[in-house]
Specification:
single chain, 300 residues, mainly beta, 2 domains, five-stranded antiparallel sheet, four-stranded antiparallel sheet, 2% helix, globular
C-alpha cells in the first residue's frame, strides 16, 4: 500500500522546529547540480529550503517566497537552472507553466476581481474570463484539467479565512484535449467556502473527484463530493451540514485513514471554535461520519 513499507536507505532527519512554526506544506524538486531540493512552509507563511545530496548531506538554501502568502494556499516550487529556488502560485504564469508543460497556459489578473485564462493548444486557443480574484487558487487534476472557484460574492459574509468574499460557482477547464469548459453555479443562497477545491480519488475508481465545502446561512456548511462527466459536474455525495450558519467545516486530506485501509476524507469542523477532526467514508451516495477527535484547529 502506498505510504507503508521500508526503503533501502537510512532516513535523513532535518530539524526545522527552530525555523518554521507549525509546518503545513512540503515541496520537493530535483536540483540541477544533483540532489533534491526540499522546502518546508509554515502556517505563518515562512519557508526554509534544503538541498539534500545522494550522500545524505544537507545544505540550507535561501527561498524566494515573495510571490504570495502561502499560509493557506499550496505553493508551487520552481528550481531555476542556476539552482535558485522560488515559491509561486498557480495564479502566476510560471506556476501554471511548471505544472502544465504540455499546454501553453497563461493567467493574467484583470480589474474588478476578474482574470483572463488563455490556453494555446497549437491548433486552437481558448480564452475564459474568470471572476476568481484575488485569492482563488487553481488546482490541476491528473488529466490536466484546471479547477478554480469563481463568481466571487459577499452574500455569505462569514469570513472564515480572512475576508467576506466567497464563491458562487466553479470552473473546470481542460487544458490538453480541447474539451469544452464547464461552469457550474450554486443556488443563490449557497457559496463555496474556501480557496480551492480538493482533487482526490475517494471512491477508488481511477478518476479524481472534486471535493469542497458548500455553505449557507440556514444550514451551515456541508462537504460535497462532485465528479466531472463530460461537460457536466455532478454531485456524487454530501455530508450532514453543521446545522447552523457561520459554522465552517474544511476538507484537509483523502487517504487510507481507516483501520481496514479504507479511503477516508479528513476534515476539521469549526476550527476557530474548538475544532473537531472528522473522518468520512463515501458509501451509497453519502459521506458518512465514521470517527472524530476534538481539539484540532488546522485550516490546511
Amino acid at each position: 500500500m502506498p505510504g507503508k513499507g521500508e526503503l533501502p536507505a537510512t532516513p535523513i532527519r532535518i530539524d526545522v522546529s527552530g525555523v518554521i512554526d507549525s509546518p503545513v506544506w512540503l515541496n520537493a524538486a530535483v536540483h540541477p547540480d544533483g540532489g533534491v531540493v526540499w522546502v518546508v512552509t509554515g502556517n505563518d507563511g515562512n519557508s526554509v529550503g534544503y538541498r539534500v545530496g545522494s550522500d545524505g548531506d544537507s545544505v540550507e538554501l535561501p527561498v524566494d517566497s515573495s510571490s504570495g502568502d502561502f499560509s493557506l494556499v499550496p505553493p508551487v516550487l520552481i528550481v531555476g537552472t542556476n539552482g535558485q529556488i522560488r515559491l509561486t502560485t498557480t495564479r502566476a504564469v510560471d506556476g501554471l507553466t511548471t505544472l502544465l508543460p504540455d499546454a501553453q497556459v497563461e493567467f493574467s489578473e484583470g480589474e474588478l476581481g476578474t482574470g483572463e485564462l488563455r490556453i494555446d493548444r497549437g491548433d486552437s486557443t481558448t480564452s475564459i474570463s474568470l471572476q476568481n480574484a484575488p485569492d482563488a487558487t487553481f488546482m490541476i487534476s491528473d488529466d490536466s484539467t484546471l479547477y478554480s472557484y469563481a463568481d466571487s460574492t459577499d452574500r455569505y459574509p462569514h469570513g472564515a479565512i480572512g475576508d467576506p468574499i466567497e464563491w458562487g460557482g466553479m470552473w473546470a477547464v481542460p487544458t490538453v484535449d480541447g474539451a469544452e469548459a464547464t461552469h457550474p453555479l450554486l443556488e443563490e443562497t449557497d457559496v463555496f467556502e474556501g480557496l480551492y477545491p480538493m482533487l482526490a480519488d475517494i471512491d477508488q475508481d481511477g478518476e479524481q473527484e472534486i471535493i469542497g465545502t458548500v455553505s449557507n446561512p440556514t444550514t451551515g456548511a456541508m462537504l460535497v463530493v462532485m465528479k466531472r462527466v463530460g461537460t457536466i459536474v455532478e454531485v456524487v455525495a454530501v455530508s450532514e451540514p453543521t446545522g447552523t450558519g457561520f459554522r465552517w467545516t474544511h476538507q484537509v486530506a483523502v487517504a487510507p485513514f481507516g483501520p481496514d485501509d479504507a479511503m477516508e476524507l479528513a476534515t476539521i469542523k469549526t476550527p476557530h471554535i474548538g475544532g473537531v477532526a472528522e473522518f468520512y467514508r463515501l458509501a451509497e451516495g453519502k459521506l458518512e461520519l465514521v470517527a472524530s477527535l476534538p481539539g484540532n484547529t488546522r485550516r490546511t
